[in-house]
Automatic annotation (TrEMBL):
PROSITE patterns xref list: ADENYLATE_KINASE
Pathway info: Purine metabolism; AMP biosynthesis via salvage pathway; AMP from ADP: step 1/1
Gene3D superfamilies linked: P-loop containing nucleotide triphosphate hydrolases
Subunit structure, interactors included: Monomer.
Signal peptide: none
UniProt name for this protein: Adenylate kinase
Entry's EC annotation: 2.7.4.3
Lineage: Bacteria, Pseudomonadati, Pseudomonadota, Alphaproteobacteria, Sphingomonadales
Chemical reaction(s) catalysed: AMP + ATP = 2 ADP
Binding site for ATP: G10, A11, G12, K13, G14, T15, R127, A200
Region described as NMP: 30-59
Similarity-based family: Belongs to the adenylate kinase family.
Domain notes for this protein: Consists of three domains, a large central CORE domain and two small peripheral domains, NMPbind and LID, which undergo movements during catalysis. The LID domain closes over the site of phosphoryl transfer upon ATP binding. Assembling and dissambling the active center during each catalytic cycle provides an effective means to prevent ATP hydrolysis. Some bacteria have evolved a zinc-coordinating structure that stabilizes the LID domain.
Length: 217
């Protein structure tokens, strides 16, 4: 089972990838990690990549493909790979198909954790925590029972993270859309894209993903 997992920040992609690794023995493959590992291990493609990076140039698609191919030849990927941050273009998506089919494997699903942007903004913008014990609160969904007093420790100071604001959330969403726009149509045309409600709670998101992987959704 080989999948691409897509989702904007806040959709819980990292949590789900980790769970799939633990429960199904799949491995998450991010290009950055693979590149660093190949350079460190001095694999044939890693040596090429190092030369290019040392010259201050960008690593080409051919080198990235080489690195992914080398990684897919390692036994721990046989139970399944979760591609993260790759492919980014239709050309890379086609290369990935070739890399997998050369090894008698295929891409099974592209799972996208969908979020409602306005709801995500509302969720993030209203967050605050107790400055003393860290208990989480929300302007709309979970106010302290006594105004200005932490339910847990009775402290009176609260804090908000500066990046918990609408502008940051909307910028991240726009970046995410720009990154996935080139590849979603490619996989939609192949009927591989499955959407999961990334706004649901963690267990529910996990259940939806499992149903897809088990062929029940
Ligand atoms: Zn507290």
């Amino acid at each position: 089972m080989n999948i691409i997992l897509l989702g904007p920040p806040g959709a819980g992609k990292g949590t789900q990838a980790k769970r799939l690794e633990q429960e199904r023995g799949m491995v998450q493959l991010s290009t950055g990690d693979m590149l660093r590992a190949a350079v460190k291990a001095g694999t044939p493609t890693g040596i090429q990549a190092k030369a290019v990076m040392d010259a201050g140039e960008l690593v080409s698609d051919a080198i990235v493909s080489g690195i992914i191919g080398e990684r897919l030849d390692m036994e721990d990927t046989l139970k399944g790979a979760i591609f993260d941050g790759y492919p980014r273009t239709a050309a890379q998506a086609e290369s990935l198909d070739v890399l997998l089919s050369e090894r008698g494997r295929q891409l099974d699903f592209v799972i996208e954790l969908e979020v409602n942007e306005d709801a995500l903004v509302e969720r993030v913008e209203g967050r605050f925590t107790c400055a003393n014990c860290g208990e989480g609160y929300h302007d709309k969904f979970k106010l302290p029972k006594v105004e200005g007093t932490c339910d847990v420790c009775g402290h009176h100071e609260f804090k908000r993270r500066p990046d918990d604001n609408a502008e940051t959330v909307r910028t991240r969403m726009a970046e995410y859309r720009a990154k996935t726009a080139p590849i979603l149509p490619f996989y939609e045309a192949k009927g591989l894209v499955k959407k999961v409600d990334g706004m649901a709670d963690i267990a529910e998101v996990g259940a939806q993903i499992d149903a897809i992987l088990d062929g029940k959704a």
